[in-house]
Design a protein that fits this description.
Elements (H helix, E strand, L loop, with lengths): L18 E2 L6 E2 L3 E3 L4 H14 L3 E3 L15 E3 L7 E5 L4 E5 L4 H10 L2 E2 L11 H7 L15 E7 L5 E5 L4 H7 L8 E8 L1 E2 L2 E10 H6 L1 H7 L2 E6 L5 E10 L8 H25 L4 H8 L6 E5 L1 H5 L7 E9 L3 H14 L8 E6 L14 E9 L5 H12 L4 E2 L9 H7 L3 H11 L8 H7 L2
Parallel strand pairs: 3-5, 4-5
Antiparallel strand pairs: 1-2, 6-7, 7-11, 8-12, 9-10, 9-11, 13-15, 13-16, 14-15, 14-18, 17-19, 17-20, 18-19
Helix pairs in contact: 10-11
């Protein structure tokens, strides 16, 4: 399909159908869809949209819970703008087309004996979708995927193609690594990579009071530390990932399937469905679920340790707080759940990141703790998320750009010191708001 073969009024999986995100909570009905296979075709699509007076949004794999990519104008789909474009072993970089899924990038890098330094816990997203919304994993010293970008190519509102790096269009590079799709459409990204290494994962249960009491120690002693707290219990599951000399010792096929598929997805899916039908059963289910996963240790290449299959669908809100607020905010969240009538079937996820220098990164300028709350898809989440959000904003929390929240530009300008720098660049690159939508009007103003 050439870029001119757009499907008027269609979306998603066929003519006439809307585009929907992974969680099913966002629907868009674009006027047109294009699936460019090159930067040149992407430029032509943006210019054609401008001539028709259409706004333009690029969509990734739909893993954002916010309508960050929704549009009633031209929807740019990613499935043909994919693949590795260059590997530079001397520079330690890989250049990849923007629509490439992270799972394909990870497997291609592994085939060349290379790896990203850090990554999130799922790899279904496209590289541009993940970086543009601030996808991150957990790390003491290594930060989000966007922080590993060394260069990018951006198609702007007038159809110009900007090469951006620390040495070229540096002001655009400083912002566009995490640009929310507000500055243009990213056509390719260059990431820093390193020779493939091994990680040893140590997963084990730990009481909530012990995890929070030792939080600073656990973060300092491990390259990658995270934990899950199960509401209605005092139980947590912890995960520590550290580099290893090996040898590789991946989970056994049967034991890995039991942990990662049967318990984490199959049984958990059933437990969530029962909880949705009978909310009063959730505290009892939580006590059983929090003890279902046993302690285990295994060693493997990075993407097989960092990432896990996520087949149970949910909605999510995540806030980035100053690291020093972690224990207090978690205590307040636990106390709120305990004194309320809420019934929460999903665990709360806690991760960390070091400060970085990207204008709209949730870790911009400060060491960060991430606290994420989830609800099973189809379960009312508003009361829980609103109560959690009040706690997070009391600690100057920054919402994840791709996850549910109610913050607006007025609030965000207060918690991002370089917010004005980003919006001024947007005014310069997209004065006519070719790349706007309702979500960007909410979070960036108009």
């Amino acid at each position: 399909m050439a870029v001119t073969d757009v499907i008027s009024g269609s979306g998603g999986r066929g003519p006439g159908g809307p585009w929907r995100n992974w969680a099913g909570n966002v629907t868009a009905r674009p006027a047109r869809i294009a699936a460019p296979a090159s930067t040149e075709e992407l430029v032509a699509a943006v210019r054609a949209a401008a001539a028709e007076g259409l706004t333009v949004k690029a969509v990734g794999a739909g893993h954002s819970f916010t309508p960050a990519a929704a549009t009633d104008g031209l929807l740019i789909r990613p499935e043909r703008l994919t693949g590795i474009r260059r590997i530079d072993r001397e520079a330690g970089t890989v250049t990849v087309a923007a629509g490439t899924p992270l799972k394909h990038l990870n497997r291609a890098l592994a085939a060349h004996g290379l790896s990203l330094t850090n990554m999130g816990d799922i790899m279904e997203q496209t590289v541009s979708g993940a970086t543009s919304t601030g996808t991150h994993g957990t790390g003491r010293d290594s930060a989000s995927i966007a922080a590993q970008i060394t260069a990018l190519e951006l198609v702007t509102a007038d159809g110009s193609v900007l090469g951006c790096s620390a040495d070229e269009n540096a002001d655009v590079f400083a912002a566009a690594r995490l640009g929310l799709g507000a500055l243009g459409v990213v056509s390719e990204l260059t990431f820093a990579v390193e020779p493939e290494f091994l990680l040893t994962a140590r997963e084990e249960p730990m009481p909530f009071d012990e995890v929070t009491g030792r939080f600073a120690e656990l973060v300092a002693e491990n390259e990658h530390f995270e934990f899950y707290w199960f509401p209605h219990t005092g139980n947590c599951n912890t995960k520590r990932n550290n580099r290893s000399q090996g040898p590789a010792a991946p989970p056994g096929r049967v034991s890995g399937w039991i942990e990662d598929e049967l318990l984490s997805n199959g049984v958990f899916q059933v437990a969530c469905a029962v909880g949705r039908a009978v909310p009063a059963a959730i505290p009892g289910i939580a006590k059983v679920s929090s003890r279902a996963l046993s302690a285990r240790t295994y060693t493997d290449i990075p993407y097989k340790v960092f990432t896990s299959p996520r087949r149970v669908r949910f909605v999510e809100m995540e806030y980035a707080l100053p690291r020093e607020a972690a224990v207090e905010a978690l205590g307040q969240l636990k106390a709120m759940v305990e004194r309320s009538d809420l019934r929460i079937s999903f665990p709360v996820e806690v991760r960390t990141a070091p400060a970085d220098d990207i204008a709209l990164s949730t870790a911009a300028g400060r060491d960060t703790v991430y606290i994420a709350v989830h609800m099973y898809r189809g379960t009312p989440h508003q009361a829980y998320f609103a109560a959690a959000e009040r706690i997070m904003t009391a600690h100057d929390g920054r919402p994840h750009w791709g996850k549910l929240h109610t913050r607006d530009a007025g609030y965000l300008a207060e918690v991002y010191p370089r917010f004005g720098e980003f919006t001024a660049l947007r005014d310069r690159l997209d004065p006519e708001r070719r790349f706007t939508n309702g979500y960007l009007r909410q979070v960036l103003g108009d």
